[in-house]
Design brief:
Oligomer: heterodimer
Largest sheet of chain B: 2 strands, antiparallel
Distance between the termini of chain A: 44 Å
Number of domains of chain A: 1
Radius of gyration of chain A: 21 Å
Helix content of chain A: 40-55%
Number of strands of chain B: 2
Strand order of the largest sheet of chain B: 1-2
Strand order of the largest sheet of chain A: 1-4-3-2-5-6-8-7
Structural class of chain B: mainly alpha
CATH architecture of chain A: 3-Layer(aba) Sandwich
Radius of gyration of chain B: 24 Å
Helix content of chain B: 55-70%
Largest interface: A-B, 62 and 55 residues
CATH topology of chain A: Rossmann fold
């Protein structure tokens, strides 16, 4: 079945050959992950494990052993090189469309901004954290933060299209599934909790942010991101869909919101694109800006301890070593609960909830 | 006039290279480059096939077509599904080398080395 992205007037509109390139990248990525990656497990079990254990005189102990054993393997090398090439081609194919559409997107941004129900606050002097400037995360040229023109929305426009392709449409037509998952958890575990104020940290193009606008019509919803082009785009995108959100260019580690400002603070795949110190700062900031009784929910990829087996855990590190999502290596071994307790949450109010697609949700109640 | 040196008139040239050291996957860096080039060619062949498909379908509808018409052609669900199926078949063919290798390892009777097969054919094994 066709699995199309939901439209709005800020979504880039690829012409025929651009779309054909993007369709190819999406299909190739899905095939490499579904079929070729599965084959890599057979390669590991069929020849790599035994060779490693014979050479080392011991069994495979952890995912790092598997990586050392698999990295020189010809099948795995070709798999990694192919998946990385597909990722590069994906960005290039999307940038073709965004570059061609920049005049229209800039005009649409201004139009939506001038009739906004929500708001946009930029900070041209915001220091972009080192973990964003050291290398372009997931190979997106210019990453989230690079302003390439006046009123630049390009990073957000590129990301909004990419997240749909990257997930092969599984994040939903408006790529808000992760927001829906957190809302599903809250409905199930805290049915009487009715937040009046919500903050989405590291909102990027604001996809999951909008899920809270729909589900919590009485709430004021805010989104922050360090990327100026991302919050500009998120703002114009939300307005194009008639949803009022207050977006601002801020670092989630140290926001300008007052103490006890929010009932609910959330993030969706933010953690793994930060650093050890930043993750701690973010949780500490959540504790500061939450009202008593407020809840923080952070959703990210499986940690080592959540994986079915060592091979599964090894594959979750692929993006770290091959796709500039480097902090995954460290983050996947961190003790979230201990970090939350260290940040001020009481131990009996911190928990990990396993989401329907097996990703862990860190929950802390103030 | 814009103050940004990546802008000429209405045209804005966005960054195309990502920052960060690239892993080297093969012994010879030239192999990495050739591999990347091959992927771009593979992609473009898929695009060309989709383009032809659009031309065929628009021609069928109107007996005549134009470049603009093809640029704005949006496949209906049936055509999109047919394209997706053809694209999956194309991808399966060009990644068959992975399946061959993985399947070889899953066999109960492992493939013999060439010299071993020579011995079999010589009735020596």
């Amino acid at each position: 079945m066709s699995n199309r992205q939901g439209t709005h007037d800020m979504l880039v509109q690829p012409i025929h050959d651009e779309m054909a390139r993007q369709d190819f990248c999406q299909a190739m990525r899905a095939h490499l992950l579904d079929e070729v990656q599965a084959g890599s497990r057979s390669v590991f079990e069929g020849r790599v494990r035994a060779a490693f254990e014979k050479e080392q005189g011991r069994e495979i102990k952890n995912r790092h052993d598997i990586r050392k054993a698999m990295t020189p393997d010809p099948y795995y090398r070709l798999y990694s090189a192919s998946l990385r090439s597909t990722q590069n081609l994906m960005w290039d194919a999307i940038i073709d469309s965004v570059e061609r559409e920049m005049p229209r997107l800039k005009t649409q941004f201004k139009k939506n901004h001038n009739s906004a129900k929500g708001s946009l606050t930029l900070d041209a002097n915001l220091e972009i954290p080192r973990y964003h400037t050291a290398a372009d995360i997931h190979l997106q040229p210019g990453a989230y933060h690079t302003d390439q023109t006046d009123d630049d929305v390009s990073a957000g426009a590129i990301f909004d299209r990419a997240i749909h392709m990257y997930g092969d449409g599984k994040f939903g037509p408006y790529s808000d599934v992760m927001g829906q998952v957190i809302l599903g958890y809250l409905a199930e575990a805290h049915s009487s909790f009715k937040p009046k104020s919500v903050l989405d940290m590291g909102c990027t193009s604001g996809n999951s942010t909008l899920a809270y606008v729909d589900a919590l019509p009485d709430a004021t919803v805010h989104g922050v991101d360090v990327g100026g082009p991302c919050v500009r785009y998120a703002h114009a995108r939300a307005e194009s869909m008639g949803k009022a959100v207050h977006f601002s260019q801020q670092n989630a580690e140290h926001t300008n919101f007052g103490d006890e400002s929010f009932d609910l603070v959330v993030s969706h795949i933010l953690f793994h694109e930060t650093s050890r110190k930043a993750l701690r700062n973010i949780i500490t900031e959540c504790h500061r800006i939450l009202r008593p009784g407020g809840i923080m929910c952070h959703l990210d990829i499986p940690q080592d301890r959540h994986c079915d087996d060592l091979y599964d855990s090894f594959m979750w590190d692929w993006e770290a070593y091959n796709n500039n999502e480097t902090f995954c290596v460290v983050m996947r071994d961190m003790d979230y609960e201990a970090e939350a307790i260290e940040a001020g949450f009481e131990s009996d109010k911190v928990s990990i909830w396993k989401t329907p697609f097996n990703w862990p949700l860190l929950v802390g109640i103030k | 006039m814009s103050s940004n040196d990546n802008e000429v008139g209405d045209t804005i040239h966005l960054v195309r290279s990502s920052k960060g050291k690239k892993p080297q996957y093969f012994e010879d860096p030239a192999c990495d480059k050739l591999h990347s080039m091959l992927w771009a060619v593979i992609e473009e062949l898929s695009v060309a096939r989709d383009r032809i498909d659009a031309l065929e379908r628009t021609l069928e509808q109107h007996e005549l077509t134009s470049v603009n018409e093809v640029d704005s052609y949006i496949p209906n669900d049936a055509a999109a599904d047919a394209r997706a199926e053809r694209r999956r078949g194309y991808i399966r063919r060009i990644t068959q080398c992975f399946a061959d290798e993985a399947n070889q390892l899953k066999r109960a009777d492992p493939a013999l080395e060439f010299e071993e097969v020579v011995k079999v054919t010589a009735d020596e094994a």
